[in-house]
Write a structure and sequence with these properties.
Strand content: under 5%
Helix content: 40-55%
Oligomer: single chain
Strand order of the largest sheet: 1-2
Number of domains: 3
Radius of gyration: 20 Å
Order of helices and strands: HHHHHEEHHHHHHHH
Shape: globular
Largest sheet: 2 strands, antiparallel
Distance between the termini: 37 Å
Bound molecules: zinc ion
């Protein structure tokens, strides 16, 4: 795909959609489009930068490992996954989360529809003549634009992208609702975290280590730490609030009688699920401790005042 080009911050799938239009491949069937371009056939989802379909797509577009990493980092909402980087692994080596595609999103409550900012769309059209999907707007829990501070727009049909660009949705999309106080604080938080990880991909390891320090926990947690972890999680739950946990995790939204102890399954090596821990678990903990983590403090304060 040597004619594939991307605008700043454009999601890789958005680039593929524009490529298809530009190359006159819109008349092909979807299946034929993928086969013709040596891409795996799949439906474009907004928040799965590490599943095997994205890996195969990037393998086909950019076999060079450095280029591939830059694409994933800057053109998908991958940055928070660097919080889940296994100890001793280089960020460039993180290419797949080993989750089954149909189960990887199930425990999470955040809105996974594709989102765009109407102001960004107008600017893109004025500047480039086309609109495109920005990767940052697909970050988990993002509801307002990081540049304009205005509500992002979406539509129920945008669960999958279906080869459309944002301007196609003008007039039919609606602003995504932001109803809870935690969601307001989450906006500068998620953008600041992602931006810092894009600049310094190994920072996630530092941030993660500081969680153990602030909570005075051993790394890794031992089975005997369970009681302490339970008490800390009770504190986390009460300080974050039920609305926040319910907005992030399905187990809390559906009021399971024994919902996951987020702290324990994230910090201990005894979690039940195989594969990489989803970054939403780490993000929930970092969000809880955002005013106490030394690794976060400067970045967070700078980022908040300059962008929102
Ligand atoms: Zn915008």
């Amino acid at each position: 795909m040597k004619w594939l080009s991307l605008y700043p911050g454009e999601h890789i799938y958005s680039g593929l959609i524009r490529y298809r239009i530009r190359m006159g491949q819109g008349v092909m069937s979807d299946k034929r489009f993928f086969a013709h371009n040596h891409l795996p056939y799949h439906w474009f989802r907004s928040q799965v930068p590490l599943n095997h379909l994205m890996r195969e797509t990037l393998d086909s577009i950019a076999p060079d490992p450095d280029k591939q990493f830059a694409l994933r980092l800057n053109h998908t909402p991958f940055a928070p996954w660097l919080l889940s980087l296994p100890d001793g692994m280089a960020p460039q080596e993180l290419k797949e989360a080993n989750h089954r595609p149909n189960t990887e999103e199930n425990p999470f409550q955040v809105d996974r529809r594709w989102k765009y900012c109407p102001s960004c769309m107008q600017m893109q059209k004025a500047k480039w003549g086309v609109s495109y999907w920005r990767a940052a707007h697909q970050l988990p829990g993002a509801l307002v634009c990081d540049e304009h501070g205005t509500p992002l727009h979406s539509h129920d049909a945008l669960r999958y992208l279906n080869f459309t660009l944002p301007d196609k949705w003008e007039g039919t999309s609606t602003p995504v609702p932001m109803v809870d106080a935690w969601q307001v604080s989450w906006q500068p938080f998620i953008y600041a975290i992602a931006r810092r990880l894009q600049c310094q991909p190994t920072w996630g390891v530092e941030l993660r280590d500081s969680i153990y320090e602030v909570l005075k926990l051993s790394k890794p947690l031992r089975r005997g730490d369970r009681t302490v972890a339970n008490a800390l999680f009770a504190q986390m739950r009460s300080e974050l609030g039920e609305a926040c946990l319910a907005g992030l995790f399905t187990a809390y939204a559906r009021q399971f009688t024994r919902p996951t102890n987020v702290l324990w399954i994230t910090l201990s090596p005894f979690g039940q699920s195989k594969g990489l821990r989803h970054p939403l678990y780490w993000l929930a903990i970092v969000f809880w401790l955002k005013e106490q983590l030394p690794a976060l403090k400067d970045e967070y304060e700078n980022g908040v005042t300059t962008t929102l």
